[in-house]
Amino acid sequence: MTIRDIMKYIESEFYVINDTPCEVCGGEYAAEDVNIDIIDGVPYDVCDCICSSCGHEKTFEFCAPFIAEDGLKKVKNILN
Ligand SMILES: [Zn+2]
């Protein structure tokens, strides 16, 4: 997995977030913060989002098993 592949993966997550309407008002979510969390030994890309219309908060979690193979550091370097 190259940095480019990882970036593509993260980009696709943002598409999912953009395609998900706010469950309260139907508005658009904007990503506030992206973190890598290990849940039950599996790395997850955890994205805190907030509705740009009503401020409703939602956390998106994306399973990211490749991060374990290729090292958390790489991804953290991209995100920071
Ligand atoms: Zn909303």
TrEMBL record:
Source species, domain of life: Bacteria
Descriptive protein name: Metal-binding protein
Organism: Clostridium magnum DSM 2767
